Amino acid sequence: MATKWLVLPLAIACFFTAISAEESTESKEFVLTLDHSNFSDAVSKNKFIVVEFYAPWCGHCKKLAPEYEKAASVLSSHDPPIVLAKVDASEEVNKDLASEQEIKGFPTLKIFRDGGKAVQEYKGPRDADGIVAYLKKQSGPASVEIKSVEDATNFIDEKKIVVVAVFPKLSGEEFENYTTLADKLRSEYEFGHTLDAKLLPRGESSVAGPIVRLFKPFDELFIDFKDFHVDALEKFVEESSTPIVTLFNNDPSNHPFVIKFFNSPNAKAMLFMNLTGEAADSFKSKFHEIAAQYKGEGISFLLGDLEASQGAFQYFGLNEGQVPLIVIQTNDGQKYLKPNLEPDHIAPWVKEFKEGKVLPFKKSEPVPKENNEPVKVVVADTLQDMVFNSGKNVLIEFYAPWCGHCKKLAPILDEVAISYQNNADVLITKLDATANDIPNDTFDVQGYPTVFFRSASGKVVPYDGDRTKEDIIDFIEKNKDTIANQEAVKDETAKDEL
Ligand SMILES: *[C@@H]1O[C@H](CO)[C@@H](O)[C@H](O)[C@H]1NC(C)=O
Ligand SMILES: *[C@@H]1O[C@H](CO)[C@@H](O)[C@H](O)[C@H]1NC(C)=O
Ligand SMILES: *[C@@H]1O[C@H](CO)[C@@H](O)[C@H](O)[C@H]1NC(C)=O
Ligand SMILES: *[C@@H]1O[C@H](CO)[C@@H](O)[C@H](O)[C@H]1NC(C)=O
After folding, report:
1. For residue 181, what is the domain's CATH number?
2. Binding site membership of 210 for ligand 2 (Cβ less than 6 Å)
3. Do 149 and 109 reside in the same domain of the chain?
4. Annotated catalytic residue, options 6, 403, 426, 483
5. Residue 182 Cα, ligand 2 centroid: separation in angstroms?
6. In terms of residue numbers, what domain contains 44?
7. Model confidence at 432: pLDDT above 90
8. Residue 406 bears catalytic tag
9. Residue 173 beta carbon below 6 angstroms from any ligand 2 atom
10. 220 in the same domain as 250
11. Where does the Thioredoxin domain lie (predicted)?
12. Is residue 52, in this structure, part of any structural domain at all?
């Protein structure tokens, strides 16, 4: 059986929480367990079913489990029924199902409606109450009618994007187009409609419509739009719901915008500093000015508060001594850094970046002072010397400190390394891929652990056999070059058993 390849948790998850390993102790009853054999059946039988694709080792999944179960128990008595289910997507037998469903990270939750005719990603909260509230809304109409000031007050949450259309009558092509859009984007935004603009808290109250008014917690706070082509409406909602500068701090109501920021195809410019400190205001206004200036030019801007940014600092390999700092991440994975900024540095530096004059920066752990264990430690700064230029056959494991399968593999690799201790041609190594950039296309690391072998002559092969000492050694024996062969075949020290 082939080894299971583990999917990386979304990088953005690192921004929000440290990974916790809490186990749930509650007995599970309400969440349906599905697998490849009965998934389709369950989806086609239900008008509304939510499926969580998870992996047993994933910390965020473990955290979600008790909340999900609680929500399932509350929702089991909802009318119409809302069913919550889960699939262990790391199971070999469910792999095809997971790839059909395009599961790229754990947990991924999807909402299936009308027997699976409509599928949407779940984009709601991860706590029981939040899940219940979100799913109740999702199972109701896509756009809610606002009939009173009270309706409007309840519906238009000051901290969210809320889209409301004003219509002279609740029929006609504009109304239908709006409903189509609401159906399409309902998992991401809240949609409402009304016959009376006077009920709405912001904007011109005498309009009769049809008009769409988008309420947002940033920038101009509301914005009107009158083109009812479905595509134009969608573009309007997507564009006007993106802040000029996305704010990242401890306020969870900002997190949806942070997720949006990371999902954008743009280069990402992030300014990290202490936002409660005295210097913050001049940075904020300069940054905002620059962000507005680059709007539509392929760069998105985020302002991150130091206090909330521990995960981000770890992810990018930054430290607090460097703040205020700006880091730009491009889609090819390169990073560009300007530490210890002054407000006046931002504009010229971003300009230089745009012109391709800034050099990328590489995250590396310090080079270890001692490297005496059987499995040698490689860091980004020693990758070139130890792996590419050592002239040896190198097995390299890319691991994450929190990854359970990596921990299981560690003693096995130790044994492999010990059995090669007297063979100077073979090096067994490991690299913490969460703390070091892997600046090369040579190694495609999509999950942990990922093991590669680079032969002395430079042939790179991924290891995807079983994670046993015997299989790994067999693999090394099959793929390694005898160093002697490379230089002079007649060298008498050639000692290998093959
Ligand atoms: C689906 O099949 C799996 C494996 O046979 C089983 O454990 C699970 O209970 C089934 N789920 C339902 C809802 O029938
Ligand atoms: C409704 O949307 C369709 C498709 O985008 C478009 O062809 C039509 O003109 C729209 N109707 C109105 C009144 O905007
Ligand atoms: C940010 O600055 C404030 C005010 O100077 C200070 O009280 C706070 O400790 C700082 N926070 C961090 C994370 O350094
Ligand atoms: C990247 O990989 C190539 C082989 O494909 C190697 O020659 C080169 O030295 C590597 N560079 C770095 C920085 O690792």
Report:
1. 3.40.30.10
2. no
3. no
4. 403
5. 14
6. 13-139
7. yes
8. yes
9. yes
10. no
11. 10-140, 353-481
12. yes
